[in-house]
Amino acid sequence: MAGPSGLFAVYKPPGVAWGRVRDALETRLLRELNAAPGRPPRHHVRFLPAPAGAPGLVAARVPLLADHPLVRGPRLGRLRIGAGHRLDAKASGVLVLGLGHGNRLLTDWYNCHLTRVYTVDGLFGKATDDFSDTGKLVEKTTFDHITREKLERILAVIQGTNHKALVINALFA
Question: Which of 23, 67, 88, 144 is catalytic?
Fold first, then answer.
């Protein structure tokens, strides 16, 4: 039996590893696919003893016990789910996951270089040991010298550098 296939866009919340999101999706899909009604059991012909007082055997159509759900077990035991990209555990965003033959499409999807938007939150004047908001505070300083104009000027330089790299890569790709 060929299993399900396709691509999924799944939101990954911050604080959760991408592998746990993939595993949770696999568990949920397996539970729901195995709970779905399956095909009816096949039947075969059996020769049973005739009722009391009648001689010989009687042909009877009985269900095949190998098709009984308690004998067969779950129809699907594992799904092949792959990730098109990975997000850090502290990051949140959309994960593109491939299922079955959809895994083949993940490379094409990744190579399309679709537009990505990043939002960064920061706090001026504090430094932590791991550069995150949950890290141990290692330095604290004033930040009143930072103005909106200075910040916008630096962000414009960063944006221009990224745009220039995008154009150069598009020309030589």
Answer: 88
